[in-house]
Amino acid sequence: MKRIDGTAVLHAAEARVTARTKQSSALFERSRQVLPGGVSSNIRYSAPHPIFIRDARGGRIRDVDGNEYVDCRLGFGPVLLGHAPEGITAAVTRAMTTGTVYALPHEGEVTLAEKIVAAVPGAEMTTFCSSGSEATLHAVRLARAYTGRMKIAKFEGGYHGIHDPVLVSVRYRPEAAGPVQAPRATVESPGIPDGAVADTVVLPYNDPAAFDLVAAHASELAAVIVEPVQGSAGSIPATPEFLAGLRAVTARHGIVLVFDEVITGFRLALGGAQEYYGVRADLAAFGKILGGGFPFGCLAGSRDLMRLLSVPDARAAGRAPVFYGGTFNGNPTSVAAAGATLDFLRDHPEIYPRLAERGDRIRREVAAAAGTAGLPLTALGVGSIFSVRFVPPPVASVRDLAGEDPALLQALFLLLLAEGVLGHSHHSFLSAAHGDEDIARIVQAYRSAFAEIAAVG
After folding, report:
1. Is residue 306 included in any domain, yes or no?
2. Is residue 288 annotated as a catalytic residue, yes or no?
3. Which one is catalytic: 159, 276, 277, 352?
4. Are 92 and 337 a contacting pair, CB within 8 Å?
5. Calpha distance 300→297 (Å, rounded)
């Protein structure tokens, strides 16, 4: 394989993007005066500057300079049906005419909960919040209350939102992470106190050594939380055998198994990863797709667990109720969007095999194009989730990405942008609004990017 100078490629890619995004550059200079880093979320920043969006429809998005892109970022995953789909837009418009938030229950919540319980394996009850981060936070608290244990376990490379106990070991730092058989917890941000992560055990992903660690900490563990497909790590899927083994060891020791389905929920299948893999969790956290592009999250699971969120049910069972609240929980606008999304997915089951076939095509043809260009590359993902990383296969965990040139990864993102494809360096997505022309354009953009990398490098 050819040795590539990632920094040289990155400089060339930045120059291409800068030349076509002058209005975005000007807006960025304005925004950085009033928004930290010029963005509302760290991950939205990219050098030389983020692009600023004017509008989006279907599978396409346009920036303020008028450049149109095939959108494979899709809001980091929520936009499964495309931007501004008619059914969701109509449902939300109707809901907004009756009020935006009540802080009281309404029939739409009941109807939506019935749809979720019908779709998700193992979901006997569900409750609503406003984001995936909130859903995983409530899952951890509920598991601790249910078991009476305080420690939780999560996996290297797993991202479960912004709360302190899980914002640990998302990135792999070889100098601090320790051996794979016993990873050390590394915090992802200043401001996280040692006490917040003292009860967080870190496990190796897709590695049976995790089962031994779970067993060793079993008397202290309330929950094990896992992404069936690790998004932030680069769209790394768990193997079915690994998830089945995790289910077995947690069940054996009375530990709550939490699937973080914020990315996989309703994307891999109507029943999410639990349906796709045939493995049932005790609790599942959802967000992104369920809201149809609106802020939404939910926690679903067994009645035995979920009843602790009910004050009268918990007290009737002789248990203390678990605090649960949120001003915008179950707001009618987001509930309407979620209901319309689930209705469409239920009535159009054919979108799942179609998206999976297109995702397979992208992974297959992009890997072949990299081979032709002489670049080391692994195409990752499953179904409509995909990414590429500049390391040779196989990639089973974030540790397998050690040694990858981050400059080369960022350069690829920018070169794709210059070719009219918006994605992300860690994970990209397909939507039901993408057609065959879009898939061909995505593949061709990768081919062109690889050719430029090989030429510059």
Report:
1. yes
2. yes
3. 159
4. yes
5. 10
Residue with the two structure tokens 């354009």: 441
Widest CA span of the chain, in angstroms?
Answer: 70
437: which 2 tokens? 């022309």
Global pTM?
A: 0.97
| Helix 6-20 × helix 436-456 angle, to 10° | 130
| Same domain, yes or no: 195 and 299 | yes
Beta strand 53-57 with 60-63 is antiparallel
CATH of the domain at 26: 3.90.1150.10
Q: Contact 20/49 with Cβ under 8 angstroms?
A: no
Residue 448 identity: S
Which of 288, 400, 438, 446 is an active site residue? 288
Among candidate residues 302, 330, 358, the one where a domain is terminated: 330
- Asked if residue 342 is part of any domain, the answer here is no
Q: Quick check: is 154 catalytic? A: no
Which residues lie closer than 8 Å to 104 by C-beta, 6 or more apart? none
Nearest to 203, CA basis, from 191, 193, 192, 216: 216
Q: 3-state class of 336 per DSSP?
A: helix
Cα 396 from Cα 399, distance rounded (Å): 8
Placement of tokens 């936070």 in the chain: 137
Residue 46: give the domain boundaries: 6-83+350-456
Could you give the number of structural domains in the chain?
2
User: Could you tell me the CATH number of the domain that includes residue 314?
Assistant: 3.40.640.10
> Is residue 65 in some structural domain?
yes
User: Is 205 among the domain residues?
Assistant: yes
**Is residue 40 packed enough to be buried (19+ CB in 10 Å), middle (13-18) or exposed (0-12)?**
exposed
In the residue annotation, 115 being an active-site residue is answered as no
Residue among 260, 282, 400, 438 flagged as catalytic: 260
Provide Rg for the chain, Cα atoms: 22
Distance CA 260, CA 228 (A): 7
Q: Where are the beta strands (DSSP E) in 245-373?
A: 256-260, 283-286, 297-301
Predicted confidence pLDDT, tens digits, the chain (457 residues): 567 889 999 999 999 999 999 999 999 999 999 999 999 999 999 999 999 999 999 999 999 999 999 999 999 999 999 999 999 999 999 999 999 999 999 999 999 999 999 999 999 999 999 999 999 999 999 999 999 999 999 999 999 999 999 999 999 999 999 999 999 999 999 999 999 999 999 999 999 999 999 999 999 999 999 999 999 999 999 999 999 999 999 999 999 999 999 999 999 999 999 999 999 999 999 999 999 999 999 999 999 999 999 999 999 999 999 999 999 999 999 999 999 999 999 999 999 999 999 999 999 999 999 999 999 999 999 999 999 999 999 999 999 999 999 999 999 999 999 999 999 989 999 999 999 999 999 999 999 999 999 998 7
